[in-house]
Design a protein that fits this description.
The chain is an alpha/beta fold and 216 residues long. It has one domain (2-215): Domain of unknown function DUF4159 (Rossmann fold, 3-Layer(aba) Sandwich), CATH 3.40.50.12140. The protein is 39% helix and 17% strand. The protein has helices spanning 2-20, 40-52, 89-100, 114-124, 182-186, 189-192, 196-215; strands at 25-28, 63-65, 76-81, 104-109, 131-132, 162-168, 171-178. It has a 7-stranded mixed β-sheet. Strand 6 and strand 7 form a beta hairpin. Helix 2 (40-52) crosses helix 7 (196-215).
Length: 216
């Protein structure tokens, strides 16, 4: 009974925040990676979502520690960085609980994150694989059209951009972009000197992620 009440409170919290105002929470993780980089990204994306959808947003920068109870106050977690990630067994259990009960995690490789993320997400879901999403998957068409999957916002190693997912009972719970880096396009223009058309494309793609996460 106690576990049922705990899960019920999680579900109420995750759904309630969307009604009062949607906000993205940046995940602070251990391991030395720069989890905190480009804090203007979420603010600009939330403003864009508010302008182009009927989703009420709170356009501010907010971070929560991986494994903290505060994670459960946000339906959408965002993780990025350039380096190492280390997830403890307790953090893995908390993140698994969050995701199993309706939470959503978006991970954007800002360059150099791939090996660590793939290794550590195995601690969270040892029996699930990251699978590449086909170009006709709904996330790529739910608001703006991305007929070839994730956009190429920032060049890394001259590889094609890819989007991967982990599904729980058919629901996309973890979405991961590799060689794409749309969150660089969400930042203030002066940060990366990203061309305006690329910034617009990246913001549209981010809006798709938000809409899909909140509606599925």
């Amino acid at each position: 009974m106690q576990k049922f009440i705990f899960y019920l409170l999680i579900a109420i919290t995750l759904s309630g925040q969307v009604k009062t105002g949607f906000q993205i929470a940046r995940l602070k993780y251990n391991g030395g990676g720069d989890w905190y980089n480009d804090p203007s990204a979420e603010v600009n994306l939330l403003n864009f979502v508010s302008e182009h959808t009927n989703i009420k947003t709170i356009p501010g920068y907010k971070f929560v520690e991986l494994g903290s109870s505060e994670m459960f106050s946000y339906p959408f977690l965002f993780l990025t960085g350039h380096g190492n990630i280390v997830i403890s067994s307790d953090e893995a259990e908390k993140l698994r609980t969050y995701l199993n009960n309706g939470g959503f995690l978006y991970v954007d490789d800002d360059y150099g994150l791939d090996n660590a993320f793939r290794r550590e997400i195995r601690k969270v879901f040892p029996d699930k694989d990251l699978v590449e999403l086909p170009f006709d998957y709904g996330l790529y068409h739910c608001l703006f059209k991305f007929n070839y999957g994730p956009p190429k916002t920032h060049e890394h190693d001259n590889k094609p951009p890819q989007g991967f997912g982990i599904f729980i009972d058919g629901r996309l719970a973890v979405y991961y972009t590799y060689e794409s880096n749309p969150s660089d396009g969400w930042t203030d223009a002066r940060v990366h000197n990203t061309p305006q058309d690329k910034r617009e494309e990246a913001l549209k793609f981010g809006a798709n992620i938000v809409v899909w996460a909140l509606s599925n």
